Amino acid sequence: MSKRLTVVQMLPDLESGGVERGTLEVGAYLARSGHRSIVVSAGGRLVKQLENEGSRHITLPVGAKTLSCLPAIFLVRKLLLREKVNILHLRSRLPAWVGYLAIKSLPAALRPHVVTTFHGFYSINRYSAVMTKGERIIAISNIVAKHIQTHYQVPESRIRVIHRGIDERLFAPELVDAGRIEAQKKQWGLSGNSDPVLLLPGRITGLKGHEVFINSLAQLRHLPWHAVCVGDIENKSGFQKSLRHLAERLGLEGRVRFTGHCTDMPAAYMASDISVSASSSEAEAFGRVAVEAQAMGKPIVATAHGGSLETVLDGQTGWLVPPGNPEAMAMALGEAITNPAKRVLFGKNGRRWVCAQFSTEEMCEKTVRLYNSLIKKQADVKTGYDRTER
Prior knowledge:
The chain is built from 14 helices and 13 strands. The protein has helices at about 20-30, 45-50, 70-80, 95-105, 140-150, 180-190, 210-220, 240-250, 265-270, 290-295, 310, 325-340, 340-355, 360-380; strands at about 5-10, 35-40, 55-60, 85-90, 115-120, 135-140, 160, 195-200, 225-230, 255-260, 275, 300-305, 320.
């Protein structure tokens, strides 16, 4: 194994979401592999898990969009020096500015190598451009890599596509017992239900396509189903309330549930029959929901743009429908609801597909290999060996 690394990952907080989970997964892999993993964030519900898996957490307001984040620059600078950090991995824009300004204040010889990750299609401006400052830039999908090259003119040689992954030790149907499934159904108020359950996981925000989903369900009133929307409420000012009103206005009261944050997503997938990724106004950069659902042997109905084009096999593991099109989504959902044999077939295909293509282990291996390539490149320069990476 290569030298023991000290890696600092920075992100706004550790509440929930794909960025947060990716950070935990890489941190756990580093710790298992004998490296030192440090995560800097404002904290959150996932800190305990992070620390239990071997990482160290340092609480700093690196994601606060106020002047309170300025002192964090100097604190991060001290951290980098004190811990002799080899790799600084920046995972979000404001923390990236904090980290970038911290390292720019250091002598060149004392600076860690910088890796950034584009977790989404960031807006095109100087604020977002900080994510291109890494020596290597990770794109979580091919479509994101194209976005970086097109809008920021970053050479392809600096970009590495590393798809997100699913942990097969967590997202495996055989690991979820009947008790967990029943507990999840009870929490949703669906104990004893025999109708197909449609699951839309994702933050309750305008970006996730809840309105398209609900409008599609209105066209399927005549079919037996229940719909469950799980996820944190991002907009506290009333977006969820407006969705409830929409469902009531369309005659779907009692058939569409908003259940908040879910602590057992594997059981949630197993308690459902069909998963949905309805993002329409903005494409998913990767679309972890589609991959997790397929890993659990569930068919997926997803909008045909962004990362879903790379993770869902249309007509084999699920249905791809045009974004923002309730009629097309209704047709796909209708077929899924009325054809249980196809659901089973697509579920089996999906499990095989994602386990072969999108594992957490592979994601982490590629990430640490990238870290080591930067360390090796530096060592080659110091010894006078000019090595061109291929």
